UniProtKB/TrEMBL annotation:
Record key words, sorted: Metal-binding, Nucleus, Zinc, Zinc-finger
Signal peptide residue numbers: none
InterPro entries, per the entry: RNaseH-like_sf, ZnF_BED_domain_contain
Taxonomic placement: Eukaryota, Metazoa, Chordata, Craniata, Vertebrata
Recorded name of the encoding gene: LOC132711136
Region Disordered: start-end pairs: 52-71
Main location: nucleus
TM regions (residue ranges): none
Protein name (Swiss-Prot/TrEMBL): Uncharacterized protein LOC132711136
Domain of life: Eukaryota
Location in or out of the cell: Nucleus
Biased composition (Low complexity): 52-64
Coiled-coil boundaries: none
């Protein structure tokens, strides 16, 4: 209605004196004096001018399309993009690698070989193999203690055979090894004795046998047979040992 009234007053050129008897029209005009016209009340010329001004303004503005950011799903954390290994997992893998080195009689330097490290890390990213010092130290003690416990559990109360023989280690040091064989044919390395600097006489070997027999106390098994080679010193040692046992 307001627009119609204003249009009517403009087209008929009415003034305030002509509208004295129409108070509601005067009130409408009074409001028009205080408030700016709405967009619908703009003349065609004003609208064209406004459009031209807006066009000039926007012609200097370069609008580039906004890239839609893809938010990560709720609960996404950086840990999913980082390969980590816990302390417990590392200790377990370290022990497995150390067992491999001992079982294959490999050099402790193996764990520091670049090709070995690359192979292990390709299998388990984020993991670094133990150093040779760890393989030769704390890991060796840990694996040895656990293996001894397993041997004691497997041999407790069993009747076994004890065999001894003279060997040489990788450094060509002379040693005497004692192995325990069960009735099922399972073999356990029970003890090794370093004989460096000692002549392998019958008397010395007899002492060695007595030390090896202590395996009965260590593994709580019963030794019922003894096997050796047929060397002269070993044969003499067997005879002396037999006499000692009979006496």
């Amino acid at each position: 209605m307001r627009s119609a009234v204003m249009k009517m007053t403009k087209e008929t050129h009415l003034n305030r004196q002509d509208l004295q008897g129409n108070s509601w029209i005067l009130e409408t005009i009074h409001l028009q004096d205080h408030y700016p016209p709405t967009v619908s009340e703009l003349s065609i010329q004003d609208s064209a001018s406004l459009a031209s001004s807006s066009s000039d303004t926007h012609s200097h503005i370069s609008l580039s399309p906004k890239r839609k950011e893809k938010p990560f799903p709720p609960g996404t954390i950086i840990d999913k993009f980082v390969i980590k290994i816990s302390r417990l997992e590392k200790e377990l893998i370290d022990e497995k690698i150390a067992q491999f080195v001992y079982a294959t009689n490999s050099s402790f330097h193996l764990t520091e070989n670049p090709h070995f490290i690359n192979m292990v890390q390709s299998l388990r990213p984020g993991y670094s193999p133990p150093s040779r010092a760890d393989v030769a130290g704390k890991l060796l003690d840990k694996v040895y203690d656990r293996e001894m416990e397993q041997c004691a559990t497997a041999l407790e109360g069993r009747i076994v055979n004890l065999s001894i023989d003279g060997w040489s280690n990788i450094h060509n040091d002379p040693i005497v090894c004692a192995c325990i064989t069960t009735e099922e044919g399972k073999v356990f390395l029970a003890q090794t004795i370093d004989t460096s600097g000692n002549a392998h006489t019958a008397e010395y070997l007899q002492v060695a046998v007595k030390a090896i027999i202590t395996c009965e106390q260590k593994f709580k098994c019963l030794v019922r047979s003894l096997v050796t080679d047929n060397a002269a010193n070993v044969s003499k040692m067997r005879r002396k040992s037999r006499k000692g046992i009979q006496s």
